[in-house]
Amino acid sequence: MTLLFSAFFATIALLLDYRLAEPKRFHPLVGFGNWANWLQRRLNPQVSRYRFIKRFHSAGGQFWLGVFALLLALVPLYFTLSAILKLLQVYLPWLALLAEIILLYLCIGGRSLQQHVLAVKQALENDDLPAARQKLSWIVSRETSQLDAQQVAQANIETTLENSSDAVFASLFWFAIGGAPLTLLHRWLNTLDAMWGYKNDQFLYFGRAAAKLDDVMNYIPARLTALCFCLLSSRFLIADQFRNAAWFCWRTQAQHCASPNAGQVMTAGAGALYCRLSEGAYYHGEWQQKPLMGCGDAADVDDIQPALDLVAHSVLLYMAIWIAVGIIVAGVMYV
């Protein structure tokens, strides 16, 4: 599949996501999550009921069982899907193309993310803080019960920026590289990280391989997302100089963030919005300080819609660049 054709199919998938959002029932990622949870309950020494598995309670034992569970979760599905698509390409090429589009559509979560974010925004605008906290808890891993209205708004913006990279930009990137199989592999890894990536007793070692591989697959997409935010950012007065705010925040703040990828996206996005994101978050009942992300005034509910607009415009820019590169490559090959 050439870059130009893949861009065309990706455009169709984006339109499907915009029109239909995620399926409410029978989503394949939900099925994969159930499969991953089944494996984890049996192979994680912290929760397994099997005596043989419980013997591997050391850090190294938990790590290698996590690697084994990771391989069991991913390898059979990936190679089965790849084989099916290759057979379809040979015997029913039109069905193979349709399958590629549908699978990409199922991997993109842009519209669903927007709906969840807007639900939090509406609750805040209605001064319904309990509802806003509850709706926010559906899309973030941090504790929300003690957040005030401004902190809820800031967390909502953070998840908008971070999840746009995971659910939209990364899916488009891997589709351009390797079609639906690589796209699904990324989303499966992303799901495993969301399920096994916690730094607690149950998952600290067992989920480490999944978390690291997810970081690897998101490394380039996160930086491409941050770059798009920079290209759309305006120049603001920072440190007595007019600078591209997104670029300034990205280059000076991302290195201090705990996540190697989310920090890239959130610092650049906050700079592009010319606002500051939350100073900390509650985890396990304790307030944990976070490094500075962004510049200007502290973000509030009025910055949620601009964050959604920034993501939407960045996707359009991303696709425009993809199509332009595809045309150039096709022209060079034709000559």
Which labels suit this protein?
12 helices; 335 residues; mainly alpha; 70% helix; two-stranded parallel sheet; two-stranded antiparallel ribbon
Strand order of the largest sheet: 1-2
Radius of gyration: 21 Å
Helix percent band? over 70%
Task: Please summarize the sheet with the most strands.
Answer: 2 strands, antiparallel
What is the mean predicted local confidence, pLDDT?
Answer: 93
Shape: globular
The total beta strand count reads 6
The assigned structural class equals mainly alpha
Total domain units: 1
Q: Give the SSE string.
A: HHHHHHHHHEEHHEEEEH
Uncertain parts:
none
For this entry, what is the oligomeric state of its chains? single chain
Work out the strand percent. 5-15%
- Straight-line distance between termini: 19 Å
Task: Work out the helix count.
Answer: 12
Please, could you describe this protein's structure?
There is one protein chain. This protein has 335 residues and is mainly alpha-helical. It has one domain (3-334). 70% of the residues lie in helices and 6% in strands. The strands form three sheets. The protein has a two-stranded antiparallel sheet with strand order 1-2. Strands 3-6 form a two-stranded parallel sheet. A two-stranded antiparallel ribbon has the order 4-5. Strand 4 and strand 5 form a beta hairpin. Helix 10 (245-253) packs antiparallel against helix 11. It is globular, with a radius of gyration of 21 Å.
